[in-house]
């Protein structure tokens, strides 16, 4: 450990131990330098590191302060979905999303898009440009069906951060996480089967279940600890469950991360009932603090967990690069992937592998973690200020999505309709349930809260909610 | 029409009418210039055009000749597959192909890879490089789920060449033709259904049928005219067929193109029995002569035909860009595509759209058509010379694949095994059947016959066949 890292670590420990609280002023640079007998510049480096890590902030002409996070907002209650396997509800709303993706809305709070304007992605663009010139023969031809060897290698290397020991040969590259999920579902289920999901749940998974002719059984889910293991065990007793599909870390949309001991208990349950788990870890690397939470896969010794992820949220969705570590289902999933799309485009695979190998991915993540945590805090603050009494908000520890429970009388489909007239979109809650629940919930993205349009959009949403509560009819479009 | 085009057209007519035969010497430039009262350079331009079109050739110090093509080889007989719906045979062989894609074989006659070294693809690379620099925000984000508007526009424009009137909104971009086929199959079938295919048939389709839990019914297929309509009608009478899946133009592997009147009759049959057609047109644009054959879709007034294609064979497979014109199944296929992979990567879509818009695609195709026809002729010549007595060879009018029937006693799985020891691979016939038929058939690629390795490989294959006929055992690898 370098000297400045030692100093930073000491300061961090003191914060963690409660010697300094959020918002407290820290010792001056000179003071700390004297205390530790180190140079001024070493202390400056130490404070710089803590700023990079999102632990402290510097206030001009005043000094360094412990960064203040939002107080935990009032969380939504544990969900209570329909306790029966269901054919997932019609996808009219989703169709709307698909077709309207490129519509005229200017503030799309509805979409889960990461920050792709950040300077930390410049090296990626440079790599794509360079490789497009130098690797022409490779980028024009089919890549290996399982994916580029370099990229599999880098992904295996990164997996260590989530406590997971993966061999590059255990990884199959896919077209985003969606293809990983879709192939995994197809490999382990047959029409008529029942799959367990958390509730609310990412619509791409729930609808993929539907399209496979499989039923979804939604399990009550807590906004901090995730799926209820008691309810899950009851479900295993009661129904012939074929598989479980979860996003256990920095969940979309609810924001929970299952504690490790829940992850371990879940795995034991799965073993007892001999059921595979499809684990979606797409937001795992965007955890605000390090080390990031472990995947359930990292506890799995039997190849029972199919780990799916992608770089769509941590880097850029336009790359369309995801992956699956399919455990004991490798042969079948490889086959389904091959017959879905033969292979994944080579250019972006190569560029991403280099981006990771050269350390740019970690630099980028470090910046994004800080930004997204600030975005979360800012948007939660505005929601508390502008939304009607009784609003509850999730408090994710990673990623950039908030799940907002509005007063009962507010139908978010209607809210979305009204918001779109003001060029704002939200993701209505019903998208996230098999049974069309969550009528008074919405999911919004906090990315890029520094853009004044975001604060303005929240204020507008607050006004619209209050108009709806006062039953003011929507003005007819002219 | 320009003057030189008129002259070229007159010469072409005379060839077509039989005034000149293949290999005949054509009038001298001076002679033709006098006959038509045009300048020497106009005639030179006219001959240049006919050379570009692969109609004539110039022999140094001798003059211009009508290009000589191979005499039609002895064709394989009409196939007689098992007349029952079958669960497609195990995919061990295909797994082998997937996993061994990047193995050490140096002459991969087994793979259907186009020529990607040609100078006519340079503009595409340039466009990718440029767009990666200038369109960063777009290439990092999700493209519309149905695909880039520009590319859909270009595809609709090109469809006119196959007699088809398509609106850009009728097109959905996919990850190669494989995703188009896979989504179409998933949209129109359910497990337990029966789908009709030609026989032999592209393994990617047959295995996609299998993985959907659907049975395949193979129909006898003629090497020039394609699927037997009589047999098809009988099948429609006898079985509850859910869909038909065919590659009716420049078929892989058999090389047939259904005559227009067959295409029309097929459509009438489909209408009578109310069955949808999945039409795979991936080799359609590589027809050697213009105008290219019409798609069955072009005769369809009911939205019954789902047209699938890609630029994997006509441009480059590494782009992974295909498309589907889903007719009346649009909504369902759009949904399946969305849930398979959300959307197709934007960079290559944009580059390809520009490549087509700027006329490079047509230039490239013109060159490829000539090259592939020459490749076909060269490889057929070598096969006739080197392969055992009784060998039969397909005679495609487009594309670059040959289907070769070897004497009965030659098992091409064994031939492939022996060939790989000499660093050559072939695609064994059993890959192309649901029931493991075609044991003594192989599919080989003719691309780049100018490379001496190809001729050498054919000679080696001939020797190996004769060794197998003489029952010379394979030397044990050391
Ligand atoms: C939880 C979750 N899983 C999967 C996906 C699909 O991601 P990709 O773009 O990598 O296919 C998303 C995208 O929104 C997501 O939120
Ligand atoms: C007849 C046929 N259809 C579809 C495909 C799949 O092509 P793509 O690479 O566009 O997915 C192939 C590739 O070999 C093919 O030959």
Automatic annotation (TrEMBL), chains A, B:
Residues 1-69 form the HTH gntR-type domain. Keywords: Aminotransferase, DNA-binding, Pyridoxal phosphate, Transcription, Transcription regulation, Transferase. The keyword Zinc does not apply. GO terms for molecular function: DNA binding; DNA-binding transcription factor activity; pyridoxal phosphate binding; transaminase activity. InterPro entries: Aminotransferase_I/II_large, HTH_trans_reg/aminotransferase, PyrdxlP-dep_Trfase, PyrdxlP-dep_Trfase_major, PyrdxlP-dep_Trfase_small, Tscrpt_reg_HTH_GntR, WH-like_DNA-bd_sf, WH_DNA-bd_sf. It comes from the Bacteria. Pfam families: Aminotran_1_2 (PF00155), GntR (PF00392). PROSITE patterns: HTH_GNTR (PS50949). In the C-terminal section; belongs to the class-I pyridoxal-phosphate-dependent aminotransferase family. This is PLP-dependent aminotransferase family protein.
